[in-house]
Amino acid sequence: xxxxxxxxxxxxxxxxxxxxxxxxxxxxxxxxxxxxxxxxxxxxxxxxxxxxxxxxxxxxxxxxxxxxxxxxxxxxxxxxxxxxxxxxxxxxxxxxxxxxxxxxxxxxxxxxxxxxxxxxxxxxxxxxxxxxxxxxxxxxxxxxxxxxxxxxx
Length: 153
Hints:
This protein has 153 residues and is an alpha+beta fold. The protein is built from 3 helices and 9 strands; from the N terminus they run E-H-E-H-E-E-E-H-E-E-E-E. It has helices at residues 16-27, 39-42, 98-104, and strands spanning 8-12, 30-37, 51-57, 63-69, 92-94, 111-112, 119-121, 124-130, 136-141. Strand 8 and strand 9 form a beta hairpin. The N and C termini lie far apart (45 Å).
C-alpha cells in the first residue's frame, strides 16, 4: 500500500460552526469546503443518513473533516457509524512552538486536561486539551527544550 495524500481525520460534532471556528482559531486550519452528503449516499455507505461535512486544511497539509449528522452525533439506524465506538481517541497536531498555541486555546473555548498543562516526554513537549465539545486534542512540540507553562490557567 502506498499512501497518496496527507492524512485526514473525521470528527463527529454537535455544533459545526463552533468546531470550525475552534479549528481555525486554535490550530490554524483553513476552511476549504463544506458539502452535504445526501441520505441516498450516506445510508448505503454506512454513515447513518444525511451529513454535512466541513473540510479544514491543517497548516502541515493534513485535513480535519468535521462531520455533522442530520439526526445528531449518533443516529439510531447507523449501526456501522464509528461515533461513540472504541477506535479513534484523539487527533494529534504537531506544532512548531507550543507556547503560543497553549496561550490561545482557552480563548478558543478549549480547556487543559492536565496540570502541568505542558509535559515533557522523551525530548518532546506534549499537551492534552478538551475542545469546545469535549473531544480530546493532543499537541506535540518536538523541540522539548523550550521553556513553557507548567501550570494550568
